[in-house]
């Protein structure tokens, strides 16, 4: 299908510019940044490609209809009037997700229920039978977005959130979301052109995303399914062509990717996840205490990590962050280090001035992604100069 249409890629706060850049690199048209979303134009093949390749998108929505509503009755009537039988059959299944930002409509669960009622009632009235609801793998997943009095109805082409890449079987208590990890890496300018270290790697998410960026591997290659595969216009041949063309762009990686963690169980989980992602040849994971480690060679090192927050570990935070700063200064010359934290007080103990601070959210926690440049020779020359 060569017909172009508008789509919306949803993302996390602070990742809009990165997602817009990703979309333009993939060949999207008319790319426009919104809040937690980026809109763009493409055809069906591009929709398949966007789902496969975008690292910082959570969902790809295909807008269908927009209308004004002033009451729940308006919503019901407007939804009922649409030709749902063009998109699904009476034996198919349905799921509705709703988001509301409105004084009139305040309850998203109620809105999704009302939408579902209108659709099944239309089927019952027309065919004497109604489709069922399936929240996990429906034939059609709809997204209802109400902003004040405007209701936008979209088809969800992704299904489960795109952060569910399909490689993670084992996670730690507080795993980092894959989209957040990819966004941090892209914000940090990581492009696979140097050695990489995650010194507190947990279940390995940052390392896996870093390897996929370095090798230009589409992040959602391991996914079991996308929602568009159940649509009536699903074109498996086109999807295979798209998949083959993005696989051709995979490239070699000529540096090292390493992860350290002090916990044996984290190391095991990370090794498992790396294996599931088929990246064992690129990523090495060791049981190692970052505070007792040092840089392995003279080459430039790119470091991105997510230090523990103290929720699952009893940590003296000020002391912990001071040790991060000391280890970087004393043992890691020639390193660009980035880490995310929601503990903005404790960070003051790092003893280094961040050259960049980027606001983002880790789940509900407002956080900062901080950049520290550790220069060559800072180990001896600088400390002597200061004493």
Task: Please summarize what this structure is.
By secondary structure, this protein is α/β, with parallel strands linked by helices. The protein is built from ten helices and 15 strands.
Show the helix and strand layout.
Blueprint: E1 5-10, H1 16-26, E2 29-33, E3 37-42, H2 44-53, E4 59-68, H3 72-80, E5 93-101, H4 108-127, E6 132-133, E7 140-147, E8 150-156, H5 178-187, E9 195-198, H6 205-214, H7 236-247, E10 257-261, H8 264-276, E11 283-287, E12 301-305, H9 317-331, E13 335-341, E14 356-362, E15 365-374, H10 378-386
Parallel strand pairs: 5-6, 5-7, 9-10, 9-12, 10-11, 12-13
Antiparallel strand pairs: 1-3, 1-4, 2-3, 4-8, 7-8, 13-15, 14-15
Helix pairs in contact: 2-7, 3-4, 5-6
What does this structure look like?
- The protein is of the alpha/beta class and 387 residues long.
- Helix content is 31%, strand content 25%.
- It is built from ten helices and 15 strands.
- The protein has helices at residues 16-26, 44-53, 72-80, 108-127, 178-187, 205-214, 236-247, 264-276, 317-331, 378-386; strands at residues 5-10, 29-33, 37-42, 59-68, 93-101, 132-133, 140-147, 150-156, 195-198, 257-261, 283-287, 301-305, 335-341, 356-362, 365-374.
- The chain has an eight-stranded mixed sheet with strand order 2-3-1-4-8-7-5-6.
- β12, α9 and β13 (335-341) form a beta-alpha-beta unit.
- It starts with a strand and ends with a helix.
- The relative contact order is 0.11.
- The model is unreliable at 378-387 (pLDDT under 50).
- Residues 46-157 form the THUMP domain.
- It comes from Autumnicola tepida.
């Amino acid at each position: 299908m060569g017909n172009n249409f508008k789509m919306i890629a949803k993302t996390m706060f602070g990742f809009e510019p990165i997602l817009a850049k990703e979309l333009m690199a993939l060949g999207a048209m008319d790319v426009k940044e919104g809040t937690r979303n980026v809109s763009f134009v493409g055809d069906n093949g591009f929709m398949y490609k966007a789902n496969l390749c975008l690292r910082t998108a959570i969902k790809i929505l295909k807008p269908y209809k927009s209308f004004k509503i002033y009451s729940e009755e308006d919503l019901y009537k407007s939804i009922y009037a649409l030709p749902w039988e063009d998109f699904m059959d009476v034996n198919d299944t349905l799921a509705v997700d709703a988001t509301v930002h409105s004084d009139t409509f305040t309850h998203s669960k109620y809105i999704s229920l009302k939408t579902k009622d209108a659709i099944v009632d239309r089927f019952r009235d027309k065919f004497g039978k109604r489709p069922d609801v399936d929240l996990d793998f429906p034939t059609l997943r709809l997204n209802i977005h109400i902003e004040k009095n405007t209701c936008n109805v979209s088809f969800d082409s992704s299904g489960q959130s795109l952060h569910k890449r399909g490689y993670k079987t084992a996670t730690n208590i507080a795993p980092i979301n894959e989209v957040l990890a990819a966004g941090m890496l892209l914000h940090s300018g990581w492009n696979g052109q140097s050695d990489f270290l995650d010194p507190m790697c947990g279940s390995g998410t940052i390392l896996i995303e870093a390897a996929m960026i370095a090798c230009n591997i589409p992040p959602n290659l391991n996914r079991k399914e996308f929602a568009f595969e159940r649509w009536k216009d699903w074109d498996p041949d086109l999807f295979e062509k798209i998949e083959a063309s993005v696989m051709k762009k995979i490239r070699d990686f000529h540096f090292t990717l390493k992860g350290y963690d002090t916990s044996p169980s984290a190391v095991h989980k990370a090794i498992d996840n790396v294996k599931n992602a088929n990246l064992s040849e690129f990523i090495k994971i060791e049981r190692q205490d970052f505070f007792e480690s040092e840089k392995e060679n003279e080459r430039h090192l790119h470091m991105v990590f997510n230090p523990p927050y103290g929720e699952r570990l009893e940590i003296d935070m000020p002391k912990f962050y001071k040790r991060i700063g000391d280890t970087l200064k004393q043992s890691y010359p020639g390193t660009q280090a980035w880490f995310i934290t929601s503990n903005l007080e404790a960070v003051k103990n790092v003893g280094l001035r961040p050259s960049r601070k980027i606001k983002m959210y880790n789940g509900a926690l407002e956080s900062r992604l901080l950049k520290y440049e550790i220069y060559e020779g800072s180990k001896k020359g600088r400390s002597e100069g200061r004493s």
